[in-house]
Design goal:
Structural class: alpha+beta
Distance between the termini: 49 Å
Largest sheet: 10 strands, mixed
CATH class of the largest domain: Alpha Beta
Order of helices and strands: EHHEEEEEHHEHHEEEEHEHEHHEEHEEE
Helix content: 25-40%
Number of helices: 11
Number of domains: 3
Length: about 400
Amino acid sequence: MPNYIDFLDLILKPEEFALYFKELKNKSTDTQLYSSLEVPIKPVTQKVQLVFDIPDYLNVKWHSNYKKTKIKKLNTYKGSMITLNNYSNLANYLKNNFSPKRRAQFRTYKKRLETSFNISYKVYYGAITKEEYDRLFAIFPKLIKKRFDLKGKNHHDLDVWDRYEENGFALINAKKACLFVIYEEDKPISIALNPVLGKVMYGYVRTFDADYSKFYLGFTDLFFQLEWCYQNQIEIYDLLKGTYDYKSKLTDRTYFFNKYLIYDTSSFVARFTAWYYSFKTQGFYSLVKWLKKLHVDTAYHRYLLHKEQKKQEQQKAKLSWEIEQNIVFDSLRIGRKVDWRAEDLAFLRRPIYDFLYSSKDGNHDLEVFELSDEKNAYAIKGKSSFQKINFTITA
């Protein structure tokens, strides 16, 4: 069996990373991203290494302890990225990739967010206190789970969360990763952890509070990150794996991930093992390519989408609401005023934030009342508008 090494996982572990790589360069710009020319004290000695998920825009030089080394490179699946060095700044990137109407929408999302809430932006790069790091990494997975529960899906990063939490603090303080946070007051509502390798930033894991979905926080967060990239001479923002609709709209280049079989040709067992895994890998991806020609992948993704939508409908059925239009406020039987920020009324936040987006009010201008003659009915009152909301809550 070969020794399996995940390149994307190694980026989180600099000491292990140094055991494998002498040098990494960006082929398109000839920019050196990493260099460790000293021979490791404990070099890797397994006869066959299978290093996977290395983007093909990287030119790789390896450390090796074999008598005779051979390397076989195999293309696998696609990744996507934004080639930031093709644009002079963020405004130029947006102009070249989005229509005037779409750019105006992006500005609206950010402006509405900052109008409705006291928003601040923070990049942790080179310094973060352990106290704030621990606080953010306690909230981070909860926000991921909250979003994906609403989608009726599991998020694979939650299964390996320890690898982020254990390595992130050291990486941030060593300037080998960035933590981007958008705060509402002192509450984090968007968090992203991105390792940095030379002039390449990797979009590893990011999320936002689903209650703020109406404000399209994902776009505001990404452009916040890209602005930082331009200020710090980052050449590539790599969005890595995954076929998501939003990626195709944001990225301007795709690439192949490579698998590298590195083996000792002086060993018969190593040669046979390398041949077997090369044959197996090439056969698998040839089959995938053939199935794509038959549009099997399209049918499969449609099936997954239908399955996800069904789960979302079931999830929404547990808590749904209706907004009544054309109601005169004075005609309502207003009951007690409630503290909508209280945890036991957390179900109110999503419709309240949707109201804020539409009304352009600030959250401190809001008043929320129970209706005395209706169960699970509330009135939301802003500066110049209001809404009546009827909730349906099931177990």
